[in-house]
Amino acid sequence: MQLVLSGDEAVARGALDAGISGAFAYPGTPSTEIMEYVQDNLAAYVAGLPEAERGKIVAQWCSNEKTAYESALGASFAGARAIVSMKHVGLNVAMDPFTNSALVRINGGLVIVVADDPSMHSSQDEQDSRVLADFARVPCFEPSDQQEAYTMIRQAFGYSEQNEVPVLMRLTTRLSHARAMVQTGSPRLPAPKPKSNDPKSWILMPAMARGRWKLLLEKNAAFRRDAEAENTLQLRSTKLGVIACGLGLAYYLENETDWVAANGGASAQHSSKGSQRDGATPGEAPSLLRITRYPIGHDKIRQLAAHVEKLLVIEEGYPFVEREIRGVFGAPVPVMGKLSGEIPLEGELTPESVRLALGLPAHEELPPAGIKVPGRPPQFCQGCPHADSISALQEALAGEADFYVASDIGCYTLSALPPYRAVESCVDMGASIGMARGASCVGQKKAVAVIGDSTFYHSGMTNLLDAVSHKTTLTLLILDNSTTGMTGAQPTISPTSQLPALLQGLGVERDHIHELISLRKYQDENAAVIRSELAYEGVSVIILKRECLEYLKKARKA
Ligand code: SF4
């Protein structure tokens, strides 16, 4: 079947066709659409399977990436194939199970799909998950287009089972979100597997873990050999050798024809992607090593380096391959890339940045159209409940000289911008409560944390427990909009009505838990409650409730 799919959707479809029984995730741009595709298409997908093959498939949003990972790991233990998806900073949250699960004997195939966000379109940093796969010593697959994303995830489940190891698949924003035609294959369910009956390989007590670690290091030689077999080399022009990793291939191919023309070749027909894949010899095009699997082998790199005058490494994220090629003593031929400055160290690759790195002249810029387009800084949706909550907070703090407002990650972080300028820090998921607490501990007056309901469940609760246990003075505002608004209104893990009971369970005194409606008409009353709790020496929590408008739209549509 031919389908038009984004990279995220191709991964989701490939996972379904590979016979997953479980999909687990926490929303985060640019990975959210993987779970959304599975959930939106699950019923129709299952109905389309032959009756004998209609197994149970669960697709669940989880509290955070760590819980999602551990659920997928448990499914693997039980013998089922499972996918867990997240954005790059989500992998930081899941690092503990991720690195440790590299040591266990994976049973049902386990694939972690991580979508990196170079240029930080919707993230607080740039990370390269290939580095974290290397850190955990697990194989990493990196598709270069949507078709490969589909095919590769199917292979990844098999590879995970054959090698009894989790496999990390890395995407980047453009591949996650751009659409292309994808040829899907028939669903192939894995042979049923019983649950693991090998506790020695699943209980990571030191004596057992030592053996597992040794085994993992030994397996890495095989991962490298397998990657070497998959990464393809075409020896062509001796002038230049291009090493294109993942999506870097697409940026290179955009410029290949011009490079051939600029370097004395004539043949534009050699530049088509099809001919690359068929292994045809395209005249004077640069020699090309395509990397889609890690850890990389070194033989093909040596062959390439022996054939060409210089190398150019095109990779998104860190200079991961480039660093490995340079090693301590450098390479036998000049290496160009991020470390030497031909490709910018930060941000996404672009066709133009790769063009310049290839030594081609910049494209002429189009003349400005003469229209003055006003700036459109990000802002709350018109009528957003957070706007009213933040206004109430600002009214409560009016006249105060010494206070600290720590924000968390969500739409409310926009209150850092004009006209509000209401929050002073935003670092990572759950940090608002911890940072307000730390500041309060060392003498900061009127320490306030602002967090959404979804982020509170994600990783705010444990910080609140610390605050309660240590009787720290802080005021927590939970902006409860009943959803994860910023990523497109996915459901929060627990309904709004359960929040007060949960807070009491964590030890917050009932008298200092307030539930308010976040509406402009209640601003003065809400500000008065916040003001009175700012004077309280202890932990107080004010829940400001009103649904996200996007959530309401989605609910009405449903
Ligand atoms: S998506 Fe929802 S929470 Fe986010 S700004 Fe819009 S209304 Fe507010």
- Using only CA atoms, what is the Rg? 26 Å
Sheet with the most strands, sense and barrel status: 7 strands, mixed
Query: What is the domain tally?
Result: 3
Helix content: 25-40%
**CATH-defined fold name of the largest domain:** Rossmann fold
Instruction: Please state the structural category.
Output: alpha/beta
Could you name the CATH homologous superfamily of the largest domain? Thiamin diphosphate (ThDP)-binding fold, Pyr/PP domains
Tell me the number of strands: 21
- Average pLDDT reading: 94
CATH second-level architecture of the largest domain: 3-Layer(aba) Sandwich
Kindly, what is the distance between the CA atoms of the first and last residues, rounded to a whole number of angstroms?
28 Å
Identify the strand order in the major beta sheet: 3-2-4-5-7-6-12
How many helix segments?
20
- What portion of the residues fall into strands of 2 or more residues? 15-25%
Bound molecules: iron/sulfur cluster
Structure in words:
This protein has 20 helices and 21 strands. The protein has three domains: 2-228, Thiamin diphosphate (ThDP)-binding fold, Pyr/PP domains (Rossmann fold, 3-Layer(aba) Sandwich), CATH 3.40.50.970; 231-357, Rossmann fold, CATH 3.40.50; 385-556, Rossmann fold (3-Layer(aba) Sandwich). The strands form five sheets. A seven-stranded mixed β-sheet has the order 3-2-4-5-7-6-12, with helices on both faces. A five-stranded mixed β-sheet has the order 9-11-10-13-14, sandwiched between helices. The protein is 40% helix and 18% strand. Mean pLDDT is 94; it is low at 267-281. Iron/sulfur cluster (SF4) binds at residues 380-381, 384, 386, 411, 481, 485-486, 548-550.
